[in-house]
User: Fold this.
Amino acid sequence: QHGRVKVKTTAQQEEEKRKEREKKLQIYVAARDACFTKRKDGVFDDEALQLTQQLLSSNPDFATLWNYRREILLHLETVRNQDEVQKIYEAELSFLESCLKVNPKSYGSWHHRGWVSARLPRPDWARELSLCDRCLSLDDRNFHCWDYRRMVVKMSGVPVKQELDFTDRLIGSNFSNYSSWHYRSTLLPLLHPQAPDTPSQCGNPPPSASPQTHFHRVCEEQLLKEYELVQNAFFTDPNDQSAWFYYRWLLGRAERDEMISCVYVSREEERVAVAFSRPVNAQSVGLLLILDGQPQRVEWQSVHPHFKNSPVWICSLPPGTISDVANEHNLTVHWTEKHSHRDCALYTGRSESWCRDTATDLELFRSELSVEKTSVLQSELQSVRQLQELEPLNKWCLLTIILLMRALDPLGYEKETLAHFQTLKDVDSMRSAYYSDLCSKFMIENTILKMEYAEVRVFSISDRKLTTLCHLDQLLLVTHINLSSNQLQQLPPQFAMLQCLEVRIGTLFFLLFFINLNSEISTLADLQPLASCPKLKRLDLRGNPITQTTNAEAELAGLLPSVTDLLL
Amino acid sequence: MAEEENQFEECEQIDFLKDRHVRFFQRTLQVLPERYASLETTRLTILFFALSGLDVLDALDVVDSDVLIEWIYSQQVLPTQDKSNLNRCGFRGSSHIGIPYSTKGPGVLHPYDSGHVAMTYTGLCSLLILGDDLSRVNKEAVLAGLKVLQLEDGSFYAVPEGSENDIRFIYCAASICYMLDDWSGMDIQKAIEYIRGSLSYDNAFGQGAGKECHGGWTYCAIASLCLMGRLEEALSQRELNRIRRWCIMRQQSGFQGRPNKPVDTCYSFWVGATLELLDAFQFTNFEKNRSFILSTQDRLVGGFAKWPDSHPDPLHAYLGLCGLSLIGEPDLRKVHPALNITQRAFQHLQQLQQTWRGNGGSCIGQQDDLQH
Assistant:
């Protein structure tokens, strides 16, 4: 349904139009009925072609008629010689051209043209490409035409290089050509593929095809040329997003391997917690626990019973299995589906143990952009900063700078990143909630990195205007958490991933685990996730609206019975 | 300060004219203008827009449910006595082929009569909206007719005799299977592969592999994965974040379907619902979205158009309402973002499914996955 602009007319003009429409309608109905009768009777003659042509000219979306027409043509193929068939199909292409002139976005017409091109005894691919050129010159965003072009290229074996040059011409004459950049993204990896990586540790087969996998990446030499092309584009018109999206893709990096990122074992609770690099359903991925060489029959549970996919899973060991602190135990968790596993040794005298690849080691928070090319990233950052000086209010610049900084040195650039986010929220205020969320995410990432660097299990991030919590799967081992003076309105159910947030009694050191929340917690429901933190003892809710509600104390006691130290 | 004053002045112009929209849909159900003739073959989809639109407006009392239910069932392509046409079953768009009117089986064999996947989808939705219990839907036949439409690459044709094939029809198929609570009608794994293959370099979905991405196809991809319960299996956290970002960047005032294209009312739903499914709709600007949608409202005849100063049509009228519902416009029913029917109609479906399963078993949730 296409947008039609309103035009005012006089009453007489209206009446004339009505009569004309009435007449057209009668002709249409007569032709349609004649058509169906013919088709029903299995008649495939020239008159049928005529009738369908008449109808399709005014309504190219009448799919049944295109099907009938294809039947007629197939029939004619059997009773005419090749030259005649060639002529018939050429006439068909001409007919289709006139249809497309009227409606260049009809699925039916383009689909039929594709069918005809495939059946033509002597196809003229140059003509088809030329049709596409003309169509695209009228509307360079017509995806029907682009799709048809791709089909023609595939069927006729047009060299990728030639098509790449085509995109060069289009982009060269007009940088703001989103569809051309898109086409380029599909051609480039074909012409200049990245050399295959060394096999991954896990020996995974590649995930199914998408431009994000490394099989669709581009070789270094060509990438550098592309950076130059794209820079020309965004320097010429910094407000056009085509080049910026393409640039982001160029700088991007393949997904990391899927793996078990952490195994944690608590002797006292006789419990094992496993963190994965992405949410999984432990019940269906072949998760196997081996203890001291013996496979264990355990029941894996998601940390939050409501979700069947979770990055953190827990299980209990049979009582007495590891409780004797004099014994050493060796655990291995196997993720059989991915041929991945992780070991964890629980030493004598230790009440808990874990094995983990840190976020720092995995360069987890730097993996947005490609890290092996630091020099390239540095030079790109320099270029974009130059542009930013010329265009201080351009949001794409700011975003790209933030991303490049995070790729190079998340902690080192933290202050500048926060400043840029503030500017970003000012210049693109419509999306300020999104930017706050993104900024929160980056601040949490930085806090995790600092925590790892200091080798502590305290996660403290206060007065950072946090609007959201994320990466909670990275906080499996955290014992202390401080989220005061932020803008959090609720705790997500994922909070249950903080399995170590608890008090342990009977040890030499009495470690006090608490949560300090000075945010905007206002209802009981906001605190629901804490019910899944088994032995939370102390909760400081001072400064939160919930303290003003009547009966708050009693209700909280009901929700969190284990909390003995409640500050309101 | 100046902005606030402007808002007060504009208040009168941007109020929501509920009654006009009810009448717009009522007229849609009665007679359509001549320029809609080309949509005859897809008439059932127009019925769906009108019915679901009235449902969102909480105004279904203006329709004669029984009459409409009968008409919808008359579009069901039923198996013949010998079931030789099982692969062609489903719902058709209208009576344009000329099959004699009938709401009961056995079906009549006609060489060119078949279901159309989008009509089956909107037909089932319409029945649910009208409160029907789907007892007259021949599920075996519908699913058989659906199964033959799927290609090796995982995408679907619309009709058994062939048509273009792409991600839109995967969405229709997934919705059908979801509603009938029976996934034997499609190979989920292949469909997921096709969807993944449609992920474009700039992190949204095209109609198929190598094709330019678009708000409508992105909705089809994400909604399908949600209905299948495979969102987090099929897409990594990073991919999901990038898709969210692409969608958020589509907002200019209302939403555009692709970068550098003008905003269009229907994308307030296609992109808005996608963001809702990805738990990121709260990052959009509700006011600007609302202002744009209402600027396309036709104050005289009701309904919404794709752009301001254009003719309204049922599709944009319906999706405009859905867009407003997403941002919490008062007096509008909430819409189930993946199935594209009201939550009320969805609850009716859930109750039906419970009775089909014979016990009080839990129904398929929409978001089973724990996100980072």
Observations:
- Residues 343-357 of chain B form the longest helix (15 residues).
- Residues 1-6, 8-12, 360-372 of chain B have pLDDT under 50 and may be disordered.
- Chain B touches chain A through 72 residues (CB under 8 Å).
